[in-house]
Amino acid sequence: MFGKKKKPTTQIDQEQLALIEAAQKRIKQKKRLYYHLVIFIIGSAFLVLLNVVLGFGKDFTLFQTDWFVWAVLTWFFVFLFHVFDVYITKKFMGKDWEAEQLEKLVSKQELRIEKLKQKFLKEETEIAKAQAMEEIDNKPQPISKRNTLSLIVAAAENHIIGKDNQLIWHLSDDLKRFKKLTSGHYIIMGRKTFESFPKPLPNRTHVVITRQKDYQVPEGVIIVNSIQDAIEIATANDNEPFVIGGGEIYKQALPYATKIELTRVHHEFEGDTFFPEIDLTAWKEVANTFHKKDEKHEYEFSFITYERI
Ligand SMILES: NC(=O)c1ccc[n+]([C@@H]2O[C@H](COP(=O)([O-])OP(=O)(O)OC[C@H]3O[C@@H](n4cnc5c(N)ncnc54)[C@H](OP(=O)(O)O)[C@@H]3O)[C@@H](O)[C@H]2O)c1
Known about the structure:
- 47% of the residues lie in helices and 18% in strands.
- The protein contains 7 helices and 12 strands.
- The protein has helices spanning 14-53, 67-92, 95-138, 172-182, 191-196, 227-237, 247-253; strands spanning 61-62, 65-66, 150-156, 160-162, 186-190, 205-209, 222-224, 242-243, 259-265, 273-274, 283-291, 301-308.
- The strands form 3 sheets. An 8-stranded mixed beta sheet has the order 7-6-5-8-3-9-12-11, sandwiched between helices. The chain has a two-stranded antiparallel ribbon with strand order 1-2.
- α5 (191-196) links the parallel β5 and β6.
- The structure holds NADP nicotinamide-adenine-dinucleotide phosphate (NAP).
- Residues 153-154, 161-162, 165-167, 189-193, 196, 209-212, 225-227, 244-249, 252, 273 line the site of NADP nicotinamide-adenine-dinucleotide phosphate (NAP).
């Protein structure tokens, strides 16, 4: 109620204001030209009067022409320049011309920006492609069709495979099957599993994985420093190498494997080493043979073969 009166807000936008200002400027320029014309006419008449009637500088001539002629001519050229400035230069380089030039420059810049965008987009696509290729290269690749890579393992119902770097059970038929399947082949293992054997297994080429650079092994045993190197060496020399453990190595080799030869011991044990759970959406069971308990076998077990789907 007692507040200050609000100032009326102008309804004219910036563009209209600019147009009005330009029109006012133009009127001023034309006015000045008109004044110049009037002063020129009066001034010229005055100069003629000064010389012809009053005799001022009567004897002063330039190229046999009276001085006032030169003065009037010079002034006339100055006036002509003024006319040129108002009607040609200022009009030609006026607001419209500026706007037109600005528009041209803006559209040129827009074109350049568009080209740069296209270039960046292309580069980004190339980079994304390269990254995707790199990811594919780094991803565990399945072994070539010619080769298989089998994991051979005996695991309890609760996935335990060992304790204190030893096997927990003794199942003679399982050991026989292990010997039968792996004989004549490359066998890949972790350093700890290798150390759990009293000596290298006969008739098999051992590939032992360790991070130690100077790990000493008996002659004929191959030492590598990564799972990838182990698989590369084994698959290059053998069509069906086996990964024989232990827990760390099974876990890392599983993504590369094409087959799993599992002995499922139908019992639960306490232990410290596990075999990973088999994802049945990625693996299908292709063989399953059940073995009962007997005097040589303390637990029931099944030989199960899985192949990658
Ligand atoms: N039930 C079965 O069928 C079965 C079969 C095999 C073994 N096992 C049992 O499994 C247990 C042993 O398994 P574990 O997991 O303790 O040991 P492991 O897998 O046999 O060996 C682990 C060692 O391998 C090396 N290693 C692992 N990943 C590596 C990598 N990416 N690059 C380079 N070197 C790597 C390291 O050696 P360094 O420390 O020297 O660097 C590591 O200490 C034992 O109890 C054994 O009896 C059971």
